[in-house]
Amino acid sequence: MAVFRIERFTSLPAADAWRRVTDWERHGALVPLTSVTVPTGLPTRIGTVFVARTGLGPLAFDDPMEVVRWTPPAAGRAGLCRLEKRGSVVLGRAAIDVYPTDSGSHVVWVEEVRVRFLPRWADPVVASAGRRAFARVLDRLLGGTGRRGSQAGDVTVT
């Protein structure tokens, strides 16, 4: 499996960072050639399924994900989200954790993915590409326009 981890510190309160990083449809607006739908409807809860459709025309594929743990942050407690990827092309899991800090919040995003039809020796390439792509998306989700020091919250890359 390809595994990657992304961490960000932001001045956003944990509840605000949580709302941003778990806004599934907004993810689709930030990932090239991707749209996201939530066929089970909102609000998100355990059992919510959302589907990221990536590609063009006949070269597109669906990446369905199910929320298997959903604990929003509250009263100094971290927010924890666990996703299972159950597609015909992408399999695996993701963990999105949002920890409150004295100056805002700390977001940790970990992906473990397997891309069918790719040999296991390609996992480091998949992990590197995933880390870069998801880091950009996470920065934009947390920073609004993706610029440091935006009114939406300062983002520090670690």
Record the SSE blueprint.
Layout: E1 2-10, H1 14-21, H2 24-30, E2 34-37, E3 49-54, E4 61-71, E5 79-86, E6 90-101, E7 104-115, H3 123-143, E8 155-157
Antiparallel strand pairs: 1-7, 1-8, 2-3, 3-4, 4-5, 5-6, 6-7
InterPro entries: START-like_dom_sf
Protein name: Immediate-early protein 2
Do you know the CATH architecture?
A: 2-Layer Sandwich
Tally of discrete structural domains: 1
* Regions with little confidence, pLDDT below 50 for 5+ residues: 145-158
Write the H/E string, N to C: EHHEEEEEEHE
Percent helix range: 10-25%
Note down, in words, how this protein is organized.
- With 158 residues, this protein is an alpha+beta fold.
- It has a single domain, classed as 2-Layer Sandwich (Alpha-D-Glucose-1,6-Bisphosphate, Chain A, domain 4), CATH 3.30.530.
- Helices cover 23% and strands 41% of the residues.
- It has helices at residues 14-21, 24-30, 123-143; strands at residues 2-10, 34-37, 49-54, 61-71, 79-86, 90-101, 104-115, 155-157.
- It is globular.
- The model is unreliable at 145-158 (pLDDT under 50).
